[in-house]
Description:
Elements: H1 4-26, H2 31-49, H3 54-78, H4 84-106, H5 108-113
Amino acid sequence: MNSLSHGFFFLAGLSWLLCEVCADAGAGFWTPLWLFLVGFVVMFAIMGCLPVSENTINTAGPVFTLIIAAGIAFYGVESFSGSVLGAVLRLLGAVVIAVMGVISLLGREKAAAH
């Protein structure tokens, strides 16, 4: 991630998505939690453990941010039948996180120059 604000939205989205999949697991639907855990391991293996270049990390971070935003948007669309306000807030949050991911993806060349 090439700025602290982008990293904040990445971690906020990651935590939010974890809360959503844990709520599903509490209701008896465990598949999203397992998919989240697999994605979490892959994400941090690429971004933290494997010896990859700085450019790869600056590309992987925004891509995973967009995947997280898509997951939150999925839960937003899914929850329209239960609560319209909750669905709208989820979709708004997903859009904000996706915008920060796109900005971070577009600004990765500038980060390499610094």
